[in-house]
UniProtKB/TrEMBL annotation:
Annotated protein name in UniProt: Deoxyribodipyrimidine photo-lyase
Catalytic activity: cyclobutadipyrimidine (in DNA) = 2 pyrimidine residues (in DNA)
GO MF term set: deoxyribodipyrimidine photo-lyase activity; DNA binding; FAD binding
PANTHER family: CRYPTOCHROME, CRYPTOCHROME CIRCADIAN CLOCK 5 ISOFORM X1
Positions contributing to FAD binding: 231, 243-247, 275, 375-377
Enzyme class: lyase
Length: 486
């Protein structure tokens, strides 16, 4: 019989909440005292360190979870180091016989969990894993032949055919916590080091975001009540606040996809279906990463391995800094830098511009987003970049090249999005602001715009960039034909 004075451990990962937390519910059901821990492991093999914006968010997220636990009479211990080694010490010091957590779906993390489970088993400790971060387990939705889906539409139809999404679970009514005071000898996480200092570039993040489950649930309810009914139209209006902005709260698990599903499903109408399919796209990204672990590191369409990406530090930096001379692109990149987030339509425009007009490797864009987005997660970040590049599953064809001028005219017709993020162009007319290089010197002078001065000239002729991209694409088609003939 287990010692009733010994705790069970709840290991928080990307699920920093108390509501709809199956692992916490299962731990509570044991009737034992609970020890809550978080481990920042950036040393184990294959584990990718967090980007700067995500580290900033994590700092706030841990503080918010700690407040939630304190209100229930509990505490949160945070450690830094290799998770297997930390658990060796934890179970030795606490004599815990059970660890509860949620499944992770990246290959390195899955393998690490298997290692931890085996090492704990040697100590007669059980690692219990529940599904708590997706609507469906990635191996629950398969084709009739038992293979993974490669197209979202077919995947989503099959996923929806499985029946109703389970209702989110409530916070356990009875939580009893273990006193963590004796565990100070373990390698504690210095949470202050998660914040940027020299320089402190996070002022824009602080002005725009408040990490935490309470904030995520409030945002969800506000979106459902006031914006969901016009989501299909509003999500593409770049200057409006029509998207849910829930992505970082989902990424860190402040709200669960089941909570989002349950709240949105109460609102009838076509817009709700469109929004829920976006939750489905998130599911599909994790599904794809689970079945295709190389999603983050190589082209899923191998014929693109022969594509000759350009190498241009100057063009990459101009893109990163929002100094390309293409206003709609620069607006998106400056929104990203200042807020840690970017409008979804802008993500598509600037992604296409990087990989097609500039012909720079999508992996460079993925790496920049990983470092600067507060909502960057391994699955969505990589799959969306492969989608816009045309190199992955469910990809937009490489020859479909977004024209940033037409995109601006359609989705920012009055230039309000550009004016907000590229204020040096604010005095230009609605028509002139998307392509100032087409205006006369007098028009620019009156608007106090000097191309090559306070605003850069375009770093690429859009038509020439398009033609270069298509020429590169034709080479991949030739390579594919040669492979088929062989």
């Amino acid at each position: 019989m287990p010692d009733s004075d010994c705790p069970v451990i709840v290991w928080f990962r990307d699920d920093l909440r108390l509501a709809d937390h199956p692992a916490l519910c299962e731990a509570s059901a044991t009737g034992r005292k609970i020890l809550c821990v978080y481990i920042l492991d950036e040393k184990s093999k294959g584990i990718r360190p967090l980007g700067g914006a995500a580290r900033w968010w994590l700092h706030g997220a841990l503080a918010a979870l700690r407040r939630q636990l304190k209100a229930k009479g509990g505490a949160l211990l945070t450690f830094e180091g290799e998770a297997p080694e930390i658990f060796d010490q934890l179970v030795r010091q606490t004599k815990a016989d059970s660890v509860f957590c949620h499944h992770r779906y990246q290959k390195p993390e899955r393998e690490q969990d298997d290692i931890i489970a085996a090492r704990l088993k040697e100590r007669h400790v059980t690692l219990f894993r529940a599904h708590g971060t997706l609507l469906r387990a990635p191996d629950a939705v398969m084709t009739k032949s038992g293979t993974p889906f490669r197209v979202f539409g077919a995947y989503w139809k099959a996923a929806c055919a499985l029946g109703d999404v389970p209702a989110p679970r409530r916070v356990p009514s009875h939580l009893s916590f273990y006193d963590p005071a004796p565990l100070t000898s373990l390698p504690q996480l210095d949470e202050a080091k998660l914040l940027p200092t020299k320089p402190d570039w996070a002022e824009g993040l602080r002005q725009n975001w408040e990490p935490g489950a309470e904030e995520g649930e409030e945002l969800l309810q506000d979106f459902v009540a006031h914006a969901l009914h016009r989501y299909d139209r509003g999500r593409n209006e770049m200057a409006a606040d029509g998207s849910s902005r829930l992505s970082p709260y989902l990424r860190f698990g402040h709200v669960s996809p089941r909570q989002v599903w349950a709240a949105a499903s109460k609102v009838p109408g076509a817009d709700t279906g469109v929004f829920l399919s976006e939750i489905g796209w998130r599911e599909f990204a994790w599904y794809t990463l689970y079945h295709q672990p190389e999603l983050t590191s190589r082209n899923l369409k191998s014929r693109f391995d022969v594509l000759e990406w350009r190498r241009s530090t100057a063009d990459l930096q101009a893109w990163q800094q929002g100094r390309t001379g293409i206003p709609i692109v620069d607006a998106g990149m400056r929104q990203l830098w200042q807020t840690g987030w970017m409008h979804n339509r802008a993500r598509m425009i600037i992604g296409s511009f990087l990989v097609k007009h500039l012909l720079l490797d999508w992996k460079q864009g993925e790496a920049w987003f990983w470092d600067t987005l507060v909502d960057a997660d391994p699955a969505n970040n990589a799959m969306n970049w492969q989608w816009v590049a045309g190199t992955g599953i469910e990809a937009t064809p490489f020859f479909r090249i977004f024209n940033p001028l037409l995109q601006a005219e359609k989705f920012d017709p009055h230039g309000d999005y550009v004016r907000r993020w590229v204020p040096e162009l604010a005095r230009l007319s609605d028509k002139a602001i998307c392509a100032p290089w087409n205006e006369t010197e007098e028009t620019l002078r009156q608007a106090k715009v000097k191309l090559g001065g306070n605003y850069p000239k375009p770093i690429i002729d859009l038509q020439q960039g398009r033609e270069r991209a298509l020429a590169a694409f034709r080479k991949t088609k030739s390579s594919e034909a040669a492979e088929l003939e062989a």
